[in-house]
Amino acid sequence: MNPIQHILAEFPLIVLDGAMATELERHGHDLNDSLWSAKILHEHPESIKRVHRDYFDAGADCAITASYQATVEGYVKRGLSENEALELIQSSVRIAVQARDEFWADITTGAKQQHRPKPLVAASIGPYGAFLADGSEYRGDYTLSEEQLVEFHRPRMKALIEAGADILACETIPCLVEAKAIARLLKEFPGTYAWISFSAKDGQHISNGESAAECAEWLDEHEQVAAVGINCTLPQYIPSLIQEMRSYTDKPVVVYPNLGEEYDPVTKTWHGTSCTETFGQSARQWYEAGARLIGGCCRTQPEDIQGIVAWSRDA
After folding, report:
1. Residue of 85, 135, 271, 281 with fewest CB within 10 Å of its CB?
2. Which keywords has UniProt assigned to this entry (predicted)?
């Protein structure tokens, strides 16, 4: 059964987790690397498990794995074999599942029990641009065809599904051709569901300039796409983007923006000013606009997820 549909049949909102990579940086890890958080998956997996647990403790109903920038090609460039790369990619799911199961065992015994769904583990599938590590996921200026994108995504998608993820999080997608490739590839894995979330440049358009509404309309016909939406985008664009997408799809809308700063892909640093109001207050506006899966992307922390939980448990 569609895991998102299953939860939303009983609960008004699925609270996603927040940033992984910038949390790892906050804990002292150096991610100025083309592998980004995938580097820590290789070197310090226990730190990733700790971040997952922090978000579950904060109230998240879904953990997104640390596989966003973990690709066979990227690991092979570092000297790993293809089998070693696939094993590392699959370990991202196992780490999140272990963190989830330990957390769930803790809160379903004794006084900690709460009215909330058992959290999902969503396996992150970042865009081709994340592998390039040059900011292409915010431009979408690929030269690859749909067929080439299918071939790029297939090994990782297969590995993550076989590792036991509840759902796939195909995220920060900058162009419709890549979303089409992912939707096409999903048909090779019957019974597997995914959400597809785009990066956006303004309140109406995804990163490469295509209409967010048209993207939602195209994906609406694909049953295995369980939700559509936006991530790693400036918060001020989110209300308009929700409205654009909801006008063209009945699927749940997923949003998890960053804190409003600009990313420099060369230095891999963030600059500018974060949103002035609390993340939780903004998230309530997104819920009222129609989003049904809400969390945070880069620079958000467990405290931001707590801000969503503070009002959403009574939504």
Report:
1. 271
2. Metal-binding, Methyltransferase, Transferase, Zinc
Whether residue 261 is predicted with pLDDT greater than 80 in this model: the reply is no
Which residue ranges make up each domain of the chain?
3-312
pLDDT of 270 reads 47
Element (H, E) at 169: strand 167-173
Q: Is residue 232 marked as binding?
A: yes
Alpha carbons 200 and 233: distance in angstroms, whole number: 6
CA distance linking residue 112 with residue 223, whole number of Å: 37
Residue 163 clears pLDDT 60, i.e. is over it: yes
Contact 230, 199 (CB under 8 A): yes
* 8 A C-beta contact, residue 212 and residue 196: no
210: left (phi over 0), alpha (psi -120 to 50) or beta: beta
> In this predicted model, what pLDDT tens digit does every residue of 222-256 receive, in sequence order?
999 999 999 999 999 999 999 999 999 999 999 99
Q: At what angle do helices 279-289 and 302-312 cross, to 10 degrees?
A: 50
